[in-house]
């Protein structure tokens, strides 16, 4: 079958090709009703813009660069799905780079993205990134840029994140409501924005329940392999030992579950466990894992929409802002002391 063109849509709807083109670009010049008609018909006939033709016409690569710490991370794989869905529908393709938590790779990836003439960049910071000068320099040169998940307040760019504070507060409050008081928090490098927000939520919940914060119950991971074993042993050696573990990542949640079971600790009878994860298999673990889930795909979609809006310099482009999307606490067997528990 021949590919569907803008002319086909214009002919079917009795509109000019320029009107259809502007409607597909979500131009402010076109009425909402006309946009709706065009978008619905385009979806019906499976119209997709031709990135090569668009790039030749507008001196644009029609490519978005996406830099993430690791695609194998469940959160980032879901976020990339959201990014690609929006990009595909808007006539862009996506070039994905991985930093593997390395600052040097992040810098090299940004240079590669620029060399490949991407129209804009979506970025989630590596765990080693504390110097932001490379990002500030690229932004100052006019590169459209949106950060997501791991962000930095000192960068004057739009950012899309999960509500990490509220999610961590809800997880800790749930454990406290079941009678737990020695709640250990296993988290990731301390200078990441998500680490700080989740730690703040954990501390706020302790304060609300009148439980003093004990820094000896907080352990910072480095994304290393099997590091949960050492962190768990350090915490179990304390007296009194923790009666609950709240982890701040998929990897730590699984590592903690494995380490506790190998040490003969019953979950949740001896120690409760709750994670901050996007694991789709959480309910199939033994016991099923209580989790705070982030809207990863929605974060990717919104970040891509914001970036394309910047690239196309729409008349009503949203101002620089940070958007927080809600998290969801799902309570399962790993944090319930009995089948009818809280």
**Would you identify the regions where 5 or more consecutive residues have pLDDT less than 50?**
none
Give the overall shape, derived from the CA principal axes. Answer: elongated
CATH level-two architecture of the largest domain: 3-Layer(aba) Sandwich
Overall mean pLDDT: 90
Distance between the termini: 58 Å
CATH class of the largest domain: Alpha Beta
**What number of structural domains do the residues give?**
3
Number of helices: 12
Helix content: 40-55%
Strand order of the largest sheet: 2-1-3-4-5-11
Radius of gyration: 23 Å
Question: Beta-sheet strand percentage?
Answer: 15-25%
User: What is the third-level CATH name, the topology of the largest domain?
Assistant: Rossmann fold
Q: How many distinct beta strands?
A: 12
Can you walk through the features of this model?
The protein is α/β, with parallel strands linked by helices and 342 residues long. The protein has 12 helices and 12 strands. The radius of gyration is 23 Å and the shape is elongated. The model has no long low-confidence stretch (mean pLDDT 90). Helices cover 42% and strands 15% of the residues.
